Amino acid sequence: MPPLRVLHVAHGWPPGATGGTERYAALLVREQAALGAQVGVYAPGAPGWQPLPSARGFAATWDHPGVTDGFRARVRGVDVVHVHHLAGLALGLPAEARAAGARVVLTLHDYWLRCARGQLVDHRLRSCEGPTPARCARCLAPAIRGPIPGVRALPPAVEAVTRRDAAVDDALRHVDLLLSPSPHLPARLGLDAEVLPLPVDAPPPAAEGPPGPVRFAFVGALLPTKGPDRVVEAFAGLPAGAGTLDLYGATGVWDGAPWGAGLGEGVPGVARRGHVDPVPWDEVDVLVFASIWDENHPLVLAEARAAGVRVVAADVPGARLVAPEARFFARGSVPGLRAALAAEVRWGQVRRSPQHGPAPAAHAAELLRRYERLRSGA
Prior knowledge:
six-stranded parallel beta sheet; Rossmann fold; single chain
């Protein structure tokens, strides 16, 4: 048979400037092309991407004008469309792919299909009991009502959320294979998905650090749901000179406003490093992972483990899944996190043995086998 023609869909490109979802998609593009597949990418910033007209409001986060037309041109002749994320694109893309004769695979990376915020954490940073139109409308009201104070730019909030829910249902009806790296995420969403753990590009094991303070690092977007403010607060309570804390990550946006711009300023031992790819694991002794949402399959934890870097982690399902040997603390607890950091200070700069996950080439080959079964109708 001719080589498989695969189109990966993501909500940002290049991967070095975005998050774990895009980095995983880029890994598949690389490995599947090396295995002989004809692989393309449809994502903002990817080669061939046409600039989109400006759009504002809630609907543009899941049905952006211009996305569907561009996709129709790219999907011609494609055998399999592998969707990694549709945020900022269009929930109608799976239906368009099926209409063009392609099979559709969708990997769940977060809760975005049922939670427009993506993490089932509400605007007050509380864990959501579960999405409903009324509950989501209250949480999303500022975004739904538009950028101009006092002006309701869209229909009533519940109606807007209901329309989005209907679009999600339709998208799922056109998915041939639903995958998730973890079992807890589809269970929370009420979806039936096959569990396929993510691979990791294993970095070389980090060398033992020089004698001195323990080198802590936070790696990720500076967003309140990732907990970097809690990391800084906990670190600030350690004895002077006990360690250093590097913050690797770009300033985020929360509820439409920049967040984290001044984080760590004036705290002795804290340094802002900005977004860095790859992470210099040889300069890190302990990764501090402080998310307040459940997470799915955090690649940063897998990379740290592969480098032999120790992990302090919030006790959330995704962290338990990927780094079961981590030193855990109760999510959101600054005293608990400070106690965990203090315990790591007593350990010093000792490395762990590298812990590797699934190999990228084997993972990509397994997906190609599944794509082939879909193409043949098996």
